[in-house]
What we know:
This protein is mainly β and about 100 residues long.
Amino acid sequence: MKQLVLIVALFVTSAAAAGAQAPAQTRPRSPRFGPTVHSPEVDSDGRVTFRYRAPNAKEVVVFRDGGSPLPMKMDDQGVWTATTEPLAPDFYPYSFVVDGAMTPD
């Protein structure tokens, strides 16, 4: 079985590093899909928070090129979250692994 691998480039913007206001974690959406999860979110200090909705998953990890695998923790809404250490502005390709399967963001 072929797996689709999607690596998305994340750019830590100078506006975020300058203290731009971060949007809320979730926002309303169609009842069919639930609230939209905002990810990735760049904090004013350069930390990046990744979120992934997978309420039935047992384990979710985010992989960032050049970084160590970052285990994620699930909240009571089924949203997995992990935050990096501060990163310098740059492009950071990443992907999620959900229960051992690489998934697109």
